[in-house]
Amino acid sequence: MEQILIYFYENKEALFIIALTIFLGIEVISNVPSVLHTPLMSGANAISGVIIIGGIILLGHTDLSTISLNMILGIFAVIFGTLNVVGGFVVTDRMLEMFKKKKKK
Amino acid sequence: MDTYISQIGVTTGDVILEFSYLIAAIMFVIGLKFMSHPETARKGNIWAAVGMGLAMVTTLFLHRENGQTISLINGMVVVAAIVFGSILGIIIARRVKMTAMPQLVSLFNATGGGASALVALMEYSNPANESALVTLLGLVIGSIAFSGSMIAYGKLDGKVGDIFAKWTTYFNIFMLVVIAAVMVYMLAFDHDMATMTILSYILLVLALIYGVMFVMPIGGADMPVVISLLNSLTGIAAAMAGFIYHNQAMILGGIFVGSAGAILTLLMCKAMNRSLLNVIIGAFGGGGAGVDKEHGAVKEITLSDASVLLAYSQKVVIVPGYGLAVAQAQFVANELVQLLENKGVEVKFAIHPVAGRMPGHMNVLLAEADVPYTKLVEMDDINPDMPNTDVTVIIGANDVVNPAALDDPSSPIYGMPIINAHESKNIIVMKRGMGKGYAGIENFLFFDDKTRMLFGNAKDSLQKLVSEIKEL
Fold this sequence. Notes:
The structure holds two protein chains of two kinds.
Chain A: H1 2-10, H2 12-30, H3 37-47, H4 51-60, H5 69-103
Helix pairs in contact in A: 3-5, 4-5
Chain B: H1 2-7, H2 12-35, H3 41-62, E1 64-65, E2 68-69, H4 72-95, H5 101-124, H6 132-156, H7 166-188, H8 193-215, H9 223-244, H10 248-272, H11 276-281, H12 303-311, E3 315-320, H13 322-326, H14 330-342, E4 346-351, H15 361-368, E5 376-378, H16 379-382, E6 391-395, H17 404-407, E7 426-431, E8 451-455, H18 458-471
Parallel strand pairs in B: 3-4, 3-6, 4-5, 6-7, 7-8
Antiparallel strand pairs in B: 1-2
Helix pairs in contact in B: 2-3, 2-10, 5-6, 5-9, 6-8, 6-9, 7-8, 9-10, 12-18, 14-18
């Protein structure tokens, strides 16, 4: 229990970020026309690929001199993260491209 | 300045790295804000993507662990994995048809959740990592998001069926309790490394099973809600991993997506007038509701009758549904609209918030066919106009026009707002057959005296209709 309390104290800045970011997310999404729900969900999905940073840090500092489980899992983590980021942004762009095409008319 | 910075053990690179994370975080927020307006949406997506790219590059070059930056060999392996993932991602994202978009979002969401779970799994056995609680949370949430999204993908793609049974609810509650118990056991007592590692793998498997069983009983119109919920979970899992590395960009990005996804989930539930709890328990598909109600035979309409009816109407409303998406009929639908407009008929599309398999699914589809924005009218705006509508054409939609939602309290969709197609003067229903909608319930609109059925694939029917009207 004490450990958890200490942990919270040590990470108080992060808790501030979390609390404020929750409100930020609610604020940004609340007034969205339903036309954009699908692209927005897709865009948000791409941003959730931010885990790729963790993947890069992990694989970047893994000992690669021997083939280890960590190395294989790390490579998969980076590939998965990249798929989420790149695939997510490209799909969102494809959806939004169609809105733009129509506007030119 | 350089000397002071080096005295506290910080290099200029560290400062640049942290700054780049700040910029990336700001770009995520601005990007999503831009994405919430049609005019700036595309720009917003690019902002968010650039922010992500920036954070990736600076991490690769500047991140230090125990004073060491990422070595050349490691860097090359990382870059190779990123290049491979990028090429694969671009190919998948470019090749998929617009109809399969919802599945694709779910699939990419699964990979994100999977990455979070893998990072947490490896960090757990890293002795330098002191944040056991968030690591375990990241592992569990990421795994649930991964397996849940994979099942959601399989369901939308028609590869996985539904399981509706009372026991799934109890089983899922039981699984949650077990997962929580294992976590508490791991956190509260000190174990040797080997035991902990084994336990973390057990936790991984349990969470994966829970993810599968969580999505399994959910079906029908609830699918979009689940994808949005899983999307939110992936964000939270990424934020948990952010805690491990004290990485503000990951924490902010993850929580931001988590809360945005959560609010989007609630908005969708509200659009269907269902509580989130109801969705999760999976009350849809019970069947049997309203079966004792009498209904007559359905009446079919010939193509020539349908074309005359449409061409000589004043006001026509088209209600598109998933059938339109499956048949890829959006282009022909637009052709029909233009043809009718040239004949002086006023045509509008009525968009139900949950028509198709995702909110906004119909908008995206019709935008692809160049249907002008102004022709798409939302449910609440078109309903007052329905009694003045001469013909309502329902193309592959079912549950969103089912009047049982209004007047049959025993129906599983009772209370969901619908497009009041039954109030218009005539109704033409284009359908492949007499199959039930995704919610698996009977639609008495089809037996209404004003309703005429036009059976067949939506694209074929529309094409024939277009050529009939041309000959008039």
